[in-house]
Each structure stands twice: as structure tokens, then as C-alpha cells.
Amino acid sequence: MDAWSVACEEDPAQPRVNQAEHDRHYANACNRLAPFGERSEVWRCESTAAAAQLPPRSLDFVYIDARHDYEAVAADIAAWIDRVRPGGLFAGHDYFDGQYQGAFYGVKRAVDEFCADRGLRVATTWREPVEMRSWLVLIPER
Questions:
Q1: Where is pLDDT greater, at 40 or 91?
Q2: Residues 131-142: pLDDT tens digits?
Q3: Whose CA is closest to 140, among 90, 98, 99, 92?
Q4: Tag placement on the chain: N or C end, fewer CB within 10 Å?
Q5: Is 139 buried (19+), middle (13-18) or exposed (0-12) by CB count in 10 A?
Q6: Domains, the chain, ordered by start
Q7: What is the pLDDT of residues 49-93, one digit of tens each?
Q8: Hey, which residues does 90 pair with through a beta bridge?
Q9: pLDDT of residue 127
Q10: Phi–psi pair at 42, nearest 5 degrees
Q11: What is the bridge-based pairing of β-strands 59-64 and 123-124?
Q12: Using an 8 Å Cβ cutoff, are 74 and 114 in contact?
């Protein structure tokens, strides 16, 4: 899911692009997923709105890579966590706090606080530079 819209560009961590560039990214995503037919869908909407359209515990895997400011990440996590079934994987990109390429990231803090409040263990990838690592949380079986 992605809004692919200039109107939704509020993330200071992302470079500004024009609507034509967003439209190209959208078309590219659609083309790349086309071979998977009905097994994939591209939704052109904001993350939290998309999560609200899905039933709880209906997904095996969710990967968040949207806005990077603390408030937006916290909202995305809260919107998506219950969409992952027990035993599923909840993950995201840019597990980092601080300045990077002129923007301030709050991803790590949002993930760590959310998971600490719920007793969830956070793991990370290690091959990427620190500001580009992914975070991973296994949703416990209940």
C-alpha cells in the first residue's frame, strides 16, 4: 500500500517528488506484481486506512516502510499489529533514530516503545547500514 501522492507527502525523511514521479512508482509496482495475479493487490491509499479495511489476524506477514517520523510510525504499528495472525511476522524498514540525509527518523523509538509495552521481542537485520536495517517481530501464538 502506498498513497503515491504529493498530497500525502508529509514525511520529512523522504525527498520531495512530483506527482508524475509518484505515478511512475505506482505503475512500476503494479507491473512488478502483475505476474502474481490474484495473489497480490496494489492499493493506492494511506497505510492506516488500508489496515482498517482488513480483518484482524488475516495476514501472515506485514512489512512497514512508509513515513519515518515517530508519530507516523507509531500510528502505522498500532494500525497493523492486530492484522498479523499469531505465529506471523510483523516487520519494517529503517530501524533507526536520528538524522539521516537531512531528515529526522523516529522508527526505532516507536518500534521499541510499542514492543516493550506488549512484551514483544524485536530482532533486526545486520547486513545493511545501521540507518537502513529492518526490524522484525514474531507475533506469539496465543
A1: 91
A2: 899 999 999 997
A3: 90
A4: C
A5: buried
A6: 6-138 (3.40.50.150)
A7: 999 999 999 999 999 988 899 999 999 999 999 999 999 999 999
A8: 62, 137
A9: 92
A10: -110, 120
A11: unpaired
A12: yes
CA atoms within 13 A on the CB side of 20: 0
- The pTM assigned to this predicted structure is 0.82
Helix, strand, coil shares of the chain, percent, nearest 5, are 40, 20, 40
Residue type, 65: D
CA distance 110 to 117: 11
- 109 CB neighbour count, 10 Å cutoff: 15
Contacts of 135 (CB under 8 A, 6+ apart): 91, 92, 95, 107, 108, 111, 122, 123, 124
**Other CB atoms within 10 Å distance of the CB of residue 134:** 18
Place of cell 493487490: 41
Q: At what angle do helices 107-118 and 70-80 cross, to 10 degrees?
A: 40
